[in-house]
Specification:
The chain is built from 6 helices and 16 strands. By secondary structure, the chain is of the alpha/beta class. Strand 10 and strand 11 (162-163) form a beta hairpin. The longest helix has 11 residues, at 3-13. The structure holds ribulose-5-phosphate (5RP). The site of ribulose-5-phosphate has 17 residues, from helix 2 and helix 4.
Length: 223
């Protein structure tokens, strides 16, 4: 099976976690796009969704799924999102699609985080995928130096030759050269550096379940 087919498989498998009558939290990315397409087939069973990005909002609305503001709803039962990396404890690196801040907000508002990923995302130790960090632009050079002090290299993410601007009006640093052995401590440490909006380690908001697309079918990992 191709990676795209594995994403379709887990996107469809995630439907079983959607609770009829309940608003569902929706993440961002190519795997989540498969889930949104599947969700459209049962849209009559739910009031709608809370979305983690402008891109997902546009896709949800185009398929006739109502989108609620996060502030307009209370606790969300289930949040469904992809990951750039996930380890055996359900800790993740996210933000390849630059939506990490809103993803973490909706994840924090949700009781269960269902991660949907193809098997290439399962890792022993987080850090091989460049770690996205959403930052306030004026802190960029200082934060690059702080990551250098950890032995890592941080680069400003560009789009069409200029710094990418997130849905929240910020920039993204992509950090290479890390081995994140202690994700909870690392997330807490980097999150308190002035100018960091959100670090793409999701340890405090880790997955409850991962639906992993493998050549042998969907494997369910419970954490
Ligand atoms: C977006 C994310 C995505 O969940 C992550 O990048 C995985 O994306 P994809 O499903 O396209 O591989 O964190 O900010």
């Amino acid at each position: 099976m191709t990676q795209d087919e594995l994403k379709t498989l887990v996107g469809q498998a995630a439907l079983q976690y959607v609770i009829p009558g309940e608003i569902v939290g929706v993440g961002t990315g190519s795997t989540v796009n498969k889930f949104i397409d599947a969700l459209a087939t049962i849209k009559g069973q739910i009031p709608g969704a809370v979305s983690s990005s402008e891109a997902s909002t546009a896709r949800l609305k185009a398929l006739g799924i109502r989108v609620f503001e996060a502030n307009a709803v209370g606790e969300i039962a289930v949040y469904i999102d992809g990951a750039d990396e996930i380890d055996a404890q359900g800790f993740m690196v996210k933000g390849g699609g630059a939506a990490l801040t809103r993803e973490k907000i909706v994840a924090a508002q949700s009781v269960r985080f269902v991660c949907i990923a193809d098997e290439s995302k399962l890792v022993k130790t987080l850090g091989a995928f460049p770690l996205p960090v959403e930052i306030i632009p004026m802190a960029s050079a200082q934060l690059v130096r702080q990551f250098e002090a950890l032995g890592a290299q941080a680069r400003l993410r560009l789009k069409d030759g200029v710094p990418l601007v997130t849905d929240n009006g910020h920039h993204i640093l992509d950090v290479t050269g890390l081995q994140i052995a202690y994700p909870l401590a690392f997330e807490s440490q980097v999150n308190q550096w002035p100018g960091v909006v959100t670090v793409g380690v999701f340890a405090h908001q880790k997955a409850s379940v991962c639906l992993l697309g493998t050549a042998g079918g969907v494997k369910t990992l419970n954490f």
